[in-house]
Task: inverse folding
């Protein structure tokens, strides 16, 4: 039968979802809607009888206390007053988690599994009251309720709805009767034709790469082997797709691995760089580890899905940060949800597998108040913001992983592609079955098993599409929606399997799907044999190459020793986790896929993974100069400070933070919101991973994209400095402090599309040099990272490129979490210090941009000053001398002082002349310059002498005292009073901007 | 059971607070605490009969897709113990009738009301009379709240306690009843064991965010008439040590977090009455 069950809150109950939807329509779309009420629709397509249908409605699908149900149109049963009805549901094949759960509930009830022809689909009806035209309602549907890429909608007015007696049930089953075929692709064709194949197939392969494949396939020895397997000199589609994925920028990181001729036009020098990754990321870590010698706490770096460091004798810590930008541009909710549940699988698939402990995130968007025309295929930045926020909320909260640290950054150049960074920390015993847990290896003869979700057409070409700018051809199939509960069930099961020793090797299915996971694990044994026809599918009709490349979520690939296979499979059955045997790891040297027993891919592992020659690139650096901002002749400092605190990059992010569970698992020590009213902005998170120890972990990050406008070298230096000082603020130790680098760049390869590619690549070179330098200076070895190099949008003649962005994440140890410090001023009478010299460094600062220009004096990190200060401050905090500590970042000293004071419900009396400074002549420059490596610290009077002794000679300024009254009283550089501001009002401005 | 207080902390299918809940039971004085996956109950490896105290921790059973705890309650109702013909629900009812304790936090509370375990009038633990629905804000929120204990309540867990401070972390925590009579009966019989208050009062509050979800009578948790079955939306297991408190860096607090007290009361009750 095909029938609809409709469920809605009884009219006596408040429909808060409907109310929120109504407000969104009014506020964001400015349309005159009076009220919205919602109804959930379950479309049941299953061989069940009327009684069973009714039982489903009464039972699992509705709450007898709060909800009404109907097998007809509930909207009419209610006699509810509305003018329009909009129904929104998922398009065929799109992950419908609620439908999936509804189907499982039905299965439990009828006592059998649903077959492939049966399913339950969900949709939502929005009953809108208001004087709205058909066009208005369409706008609501398109811009407010549905994302047409993944959802359909139906609109009807009440009169027609009554006449028709409601909507008829409609199946959204995927119907694809196509037979599996493997298409041979002739590559012996012209250059233009080769490029057409690459472009139209979303392969993102260059002409050289296409020729490289053609030449390989034509080698007589290769051809002879292939012919024996039933293949030819033509590439099978499975092969070409797999190579495109493996060699994509997204997976192979060709820009970081390639050769660069770097010309510094200012200095008149030229040099050749072989692999930025090897020289600027891997090498510094190797050098730092060598220097640490026996005390080296890095365990596994740059070789697994995540980095691993030692926590204590019993536990190792695993950390990874990923981006999910391109999918989030098209479907912010699904893209971000997949981003977070996707990065969860990285620590889980590292070494023998880590239990997940906490999440972090960082989002870059255009302003949510964007009022210009939205270019084709793009969504309004507020929709992206809300979609991403909700996606990460559902991904993190439903997985039971606390979101402990995060931030938001706004710049309108993220309108073309938002950046969605998601990170996960995991923990695993130092030893698993007597062997180091960070190591894993598959052996020839091990069985390939895939667990978790099934394969659909979701996420096909995710890797290759992320390796290009967002354009007209960007495929809708690249979008996936994560299913956190299926993944959670799988993780519960696999952790048991790990502890029972039921597998030898594990990795996740992310970009490239099985092609990537099986291929990379096959490198341990030098080969594999994979049967694509054995893969469990969500629906029929997938071609072999689609099965191989699909990025359908919630899947892990394991190598199971043959003698453990039965026990492994039994455990999975018991714990309700689907597991399927797909083939064997071999030492044949071959990348071998079959379908129905016929070979559909047969390539040398060596060719797939090692043979591609490095890319040759050119970079040219020339310093740009920008206009200086016009600062007010006599600034009203109170007004300036209020404006600054309300700026998007400074204002309170409580709206977002509150909606993330930041304390599940019970380990939270310093939460993202702190202070007297639980609403002050913490610099970093502190967690206590195991209950039997007070040792903790500090998690922080730094990001300063705007400085890239002046020099990416200083952008990276500042991001790293910010991450390190944030960690120090809460008590993190530089003795055990590791970093993760996530580069998000705009296309840096010179071409017709990118005429300034030489400059952008030079920006990348300079960024990497800063990374190499400061990693060693601060002794913060990068242990893992990722790059995303094509964050551009190009359509209909409009190009939007993001500012080059590095997110530097830090994970550090704190020996005793009871020594942790928060950023809020603690009590009246405490002394206020600033640590570090302020320079005239307004370049690309929030204050400069507020006053209309970028300027040129970019903040510079001076390690000879900062390093002694960082070490001394770490000591002072460990000695218990510090009451509060907050770093000076966006908005400088003025913002840090105000946040410290109002987060403690307190005020301050400040004398600016007491601050260490160089080249500062104006109070506003003193307050808002973004000089690096500075802190605002408050100290109890009876500890001041000891504090000053520890901090001696590190650039200490005794600015004043904390006061009971919530005012900021300040005297300026000329000794006169320059501010007497009500901090309550300033705090209100800080909270108002993102109070959605 | 040889004089040992034995606790089962149930997990699986989306539960996610089992580790800290188990730790809370240990701190509360339990002798044996086992985290058991639902599949291990259904396979018969573990039996509820072997325990005194069942903990239903927070999480997102089946993703809360059909409403919080709704699909989970349905799963519990239909689940059968392998090779025994016995339903899990029968084991549960026997557990209740044996005078044992059940504690549901957040999603565990949602599960209890959606199975009809609470309010349990007239010892009927399958009749659904109350529910937990969407917060008035229609948002999931993580926020610490002030709570006051109803000292007239029969609740075993809150005995001797007054004011508490725990975090809520939910999107569906607004307590509702099928009708006003049911609601009034809960109030009259002092089954409302715990309610939301402002920081400076012990009176129920309807002011957001002190009352984070819009619950009438500021209901944060209810017990059955025996006081042995208790469910609440706030998370006591999230406050086991003073460093869990959001303001521990600015307030003088005892070393032990306020969450432990509820678990200690449960363990003490078992020692006094069930061993």
Result:
């Amino acid at each position: 039968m095909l029938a609809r069950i409709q469920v809605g809150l009884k009219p006596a109950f408040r429909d808060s979802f409907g109310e929120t939807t109504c407000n969104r329509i009014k506020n964001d779309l400015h349309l005159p809607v009076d009220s919205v009420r919602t109804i959930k629709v379950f479309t049941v397509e299953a061989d069940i009888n009327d009684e069973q249908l009714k039982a489903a409605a009464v039972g699992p699908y509705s709450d007898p206390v709060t909800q009404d149900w109907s097998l007809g149109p509930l909207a009419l049963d209610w006699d509810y007053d509305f003018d329009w009805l909009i129904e929104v549901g998922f398009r065929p094949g799109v992950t419908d988690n609620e439908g999936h759960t509804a189907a499982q509930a039905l299965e439990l009830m009828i006592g059998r599994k649903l077959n492939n022809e049966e399913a339950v689909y969900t949709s939502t009806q929005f009953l809108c009251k208001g004087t709205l035209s058909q066009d208005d309602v369409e706008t609501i549907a398109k811009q407010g309720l549905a994302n047409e890429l993944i959802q359909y909608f139906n609109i009807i007015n009440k009169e027609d709805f009554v006449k028709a007696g409601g909507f008829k049930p409609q199946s959204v089953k995927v119907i694809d009767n196509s037979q599996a075929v493997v298409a041979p692709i002739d590559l012996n064709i012209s250059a233009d034709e080769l490029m057409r194949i690459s472009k139209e197939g979303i392969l993102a392969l260059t002409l050289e790469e296409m020729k490289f494949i053609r030449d390989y396939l034509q080698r007589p020895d290769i051809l002879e082997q292939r012919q024996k397997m039933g293949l030819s000199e033509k590439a099978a589609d499975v092969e070409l797709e797999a190579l495109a994925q493996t060699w994509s920028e997204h997976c192979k990181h060709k820009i970081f691995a390639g050769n660069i001729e770097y010309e510094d036009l200012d200095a008149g020098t030229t040099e050749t760089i072989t692999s930025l990754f090897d020289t600027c990321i891997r090498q510094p870590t190797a050098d730092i580890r060598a220097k640490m010698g026996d005390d080296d706490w890095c365990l596994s770096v740059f070789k697994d899905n995540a980095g691993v460091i030692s926590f204590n004798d019993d536990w190792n810590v695993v950390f990874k940060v990923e981006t999910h930008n391109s999918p989030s541009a098209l479907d912010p909710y699904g893209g971000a949800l997949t981003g977070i549940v996707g990065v969860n699988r990285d620590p889980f698939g590292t070494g023998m597998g880590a239990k997940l402990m906490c999440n972090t995130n960082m989002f870059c968007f255009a302003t949510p108040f964007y009022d210009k025309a939205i270019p084709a295929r793009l969504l309004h930045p507020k929709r992206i913001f809300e979609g991403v926020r909700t996606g990460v909320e559902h991904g993190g909260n439903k997985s039971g992983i606390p979101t402990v640290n995060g931030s938001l950054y706004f710049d309108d150049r993220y309108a073309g592609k938002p950046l969605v960074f998601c990170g996960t920390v995991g923990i695993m015993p130092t030893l698993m079955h007597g062997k180091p847990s960070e190591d894993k290896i598959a052996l020839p003869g091990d069985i390939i098993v895939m667990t978790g979700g099934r394969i659909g057409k979701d996420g096909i070409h995710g890797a290759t599409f992320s390796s290009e700018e967002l354009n007209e051809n960007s495929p809708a199939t690249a979008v996936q929606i994560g299913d956190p509960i299926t993944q959670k069930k799988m993780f519960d099961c696999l952790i048991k399997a790990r502890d029972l020793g039921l597998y030898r090797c594990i990795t996740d299915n992310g970009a490239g799907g099985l092609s990537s996971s099986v291929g990379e694990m096959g490198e341990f044994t030098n080969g594999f044999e994979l049967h694509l026809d054995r893969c469990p599918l969500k629906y029929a009709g997938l071609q072999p190459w689609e099965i191989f490349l699909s990025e359908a979520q919630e899947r892990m690939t394991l190598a199971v020793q043959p003698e453990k296979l039965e026990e492994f499979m039994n455990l999975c059955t018991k714990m309700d986790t689907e597991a399927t045997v797909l083939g064997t790891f071999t030492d044949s040297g071959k990348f071998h896929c079959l379908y129905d027993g016929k070979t559909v891919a047969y390539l040398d592992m060596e060719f797939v993974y090692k043979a591609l020659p490095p890319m040759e690139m050119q970079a040219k650096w020339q310093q740009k100069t920008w206009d200086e901002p016009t600062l007010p002749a006599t600034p009203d400092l109170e007004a300036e400070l209020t404006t600054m605190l309300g700026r998007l990059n400074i204002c309170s992010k409580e709206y977002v933070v509150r909606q993330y569970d930041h304390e599940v698992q019970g380990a939270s020590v310093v939460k993202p919101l702190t202070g007297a009213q639980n609403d002050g902005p913490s610099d970093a998170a502190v967690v206590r991973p195991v209950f039997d120890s007070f040792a903790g972990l500090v998690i922080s990050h730094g990001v300063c994209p705007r400085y890239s406008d002046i020099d990416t070298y200083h952008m990276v230096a500042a991001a790293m400095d910010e991450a390190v000082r944030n960690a120090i603020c809460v008590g993190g130790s530089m003795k055990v402090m590791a970093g993760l680098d996530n580069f998000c760049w705009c296309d840096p390869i010179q071409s017709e599309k990118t005429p300034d590619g030489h400059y952008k690549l030079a920006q990348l070179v300079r960024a990497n040099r800063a990374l190499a330098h400061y990693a060693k200076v601060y002794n913060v070895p990068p242990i893992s990272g990722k790059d995303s190099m094509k964050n551009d949008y190009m359509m209909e003649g409009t190009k939007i490129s993001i500012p080059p962005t590095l997110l530097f994440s830090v994970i550090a140890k704190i020996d005793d979490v009871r020594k942790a410090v928060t950023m809020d001023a603690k009590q009246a009478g405490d002394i206020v210090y600033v640590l570090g010299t302020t320079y005239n460094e307004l370049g690309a600062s929030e204050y400069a941009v507020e006053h209309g220009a970028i300027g040129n004096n970019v903040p510079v990190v001076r390690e000879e000053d900062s390093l002694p200060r960082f070490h001394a401050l770490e000591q002072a905090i460990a000695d218990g001398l510090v009451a509060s500590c907050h770093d000076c970042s966006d908005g400088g000293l003025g913002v840090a002082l105000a946040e410290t004071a109002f987060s403690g419900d307190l005020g301050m009396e400040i004398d600016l002349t007491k601050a260490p400074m160089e080249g500062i002549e104006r109070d506003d420059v003193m307050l808002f310059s973004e000089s690096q490596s500075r802190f605002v610290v408050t100290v109890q009077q009876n500890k001041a002498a000891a504090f000053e002794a520890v901090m001696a000679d590190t650039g200490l300024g005794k600015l004043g005292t904390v006061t009971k009254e919530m005012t900021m009283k300040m005297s300026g550089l000329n000794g006169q009073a320059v501010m007497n501001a009500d901090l309550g009002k300033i705090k209100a401005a800080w909270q108002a901007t993102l109070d959605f | 059971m040889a004089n040992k207080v034995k606790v089962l902390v149930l997990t699986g299918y989306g539960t996610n607070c089992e580790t800290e809940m188990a730790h809370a039971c240990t701190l509360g004085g339990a002798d044996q605490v086992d985290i058991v996956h639902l599949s291990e109950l259904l396979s018969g490896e573990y039996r509820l009969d072997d325990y005194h105290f069942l903990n239903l921790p927070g999480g997102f059973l089946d993703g809360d897709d059909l409403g919080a705890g709704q699909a989970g309650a349905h799963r519990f109702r239909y689940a059968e113990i392998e090779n025994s013909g016995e339903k899990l629900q029968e084991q549960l009812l026997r557990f209740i009738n044996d005078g044992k304790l059940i504690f549901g936090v957040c999603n565990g509370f949602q599960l209890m009301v959606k199975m009809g375990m609470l309010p349990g009038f007239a010892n009927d633990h399958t009749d659904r009379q109350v529910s937990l629905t969407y917060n008035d804000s229609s948002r999931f929120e993580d926020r610490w709240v002030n709570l006051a204990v109803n000292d007239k309540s029969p609740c075993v867990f809150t005995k001797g306690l007054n004011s508490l401070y725990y975090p809520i972390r939910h999107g569906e925590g607004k307590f509702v009843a099928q009708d006003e009579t049911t609601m009034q009966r809960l109030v009259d019989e002092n089954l409302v064991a715990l309610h939301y208050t402002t920081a400076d009062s012990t009176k129920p509050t309807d002011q957001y965010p002190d009352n984070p979800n819009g619950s009438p009578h500021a209901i944060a948790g209810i017990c059955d008439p025996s006081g042995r079955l208790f469910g609440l939306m706030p998370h006591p297991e999230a406050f086991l040590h003073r460093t869990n408190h959001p303001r521990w860096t600015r307030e003088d607090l005892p070393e032990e977090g306020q969450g432990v007290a509820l678990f200690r009361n449960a363990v003490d009750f078992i020692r006094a009455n069930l061993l």
Q: What stands out?
A: Residues 757-778 of chain A form the longest helix (22 residues). DSSP finds 32 helices and 45 strands in chain A. Residues 458 and 480 of chain A are 5 Å apart (CA to CA).
